[in-house]
Amino acid sequence: KTIPYITTKEGDVWKNTRQSISHAFANQHIKRMKAICCEKLEEWICSTLDSKPGTSLDMFNEMQQLSLRIVWKVTFEYDLSDEEVDAFIKDNKTYLHEVACKQRMHTWRKWCKSFLPSVRRAYQASENTALFARRVLASYREKVKSGVESSDDTLIKLLENSGAFATEAEKIAEITGLISGGFHTTGNSIGFTLLELAKNPKIIEDYRDNIKGTSNVYDWAKSDCIQRIVREGLRMHPVTSHIWRVLDKDIHTKSTGMSTKKASSHIVIPKGSIIVVCFPSVHRSSEHYNHPDTFDPSRWINPSKEAMDAFMPFALGRRTCIGQRLAYAELHTVIAKLAAEYNWEVEAEGSVCVGLAISRKGTRLIARKSCGQLD
Question: What is d(CA 245, CA 230) in angstroms, rounded to the nearest whole number?
Fold first, then answer.
């Protein structure tokens, strides 16, 4: 039986769940988030970039792994081993490919576990992930007994103590659901932005000029320049391709101008309608942005109201992404450090692949330590 989690819950159940865990992503925890981002980024740099300088890297795979380590540590106070990272990503990919892609198109597949090997593999992968989440929960409980858990309201602490999750299965569903939706999206966004920077070295030069005189990654991450770079990366390459919503009331909106003279100048979308928002179409619309297919962070210097209103990488409204502050902490910290200290070269652009999130396959970048001085 599938147990719902925050993304798939509705009504008061969803509201209670969100209220119970939203504090884990509150503003007062951003400092801790950034500290863990820096910690995990330094570990990755030492083991990958500095130990194998000039090596070609599959950046989307690398950034997904880095994001996964950050998310587990921030939210569940757990340090993943290399083996756990590989196993989790493999199982997550196997399950999502079947359930979010194949079964979305062919719903009959969900009843074919007994004679379709790919369905059996997907459900085994789901069981593996749930078992791992149980081990993480058990690890946290041991920390509590020993008195070494975080003093902050981490997500795992709220899951344990809020009282909103009556059963162990509900806690496991929240852990696996939130992690599955949180690491590859942010990892892909970092990968896309690094690819754009590698293709536009002048933007990196301007960024380094902007942060000269500072030597602290926390200051770099707060710079106006890196804020614009991240925003432009999310505009061109949003974390997901689309969202859909069921309207709980009639929506009255103006015509787009495509209607005929006989048509009404206003459009009413009735309550109960399913609407789909395609983020790439909105973010790359020439109605909102000049030269929308060009990576140009300077467009965010004094942007128009239309440009700001059209920008919604984490959706809008009550069901906006609950973990977006963590995502921004990752994006600002990781990109600020890697753009400041490394020169990037594109070996292969690869190709776009669209699933639960938008990613690239076969993209390879080469990083070399910059010789320039920032201080």
Answer: 27
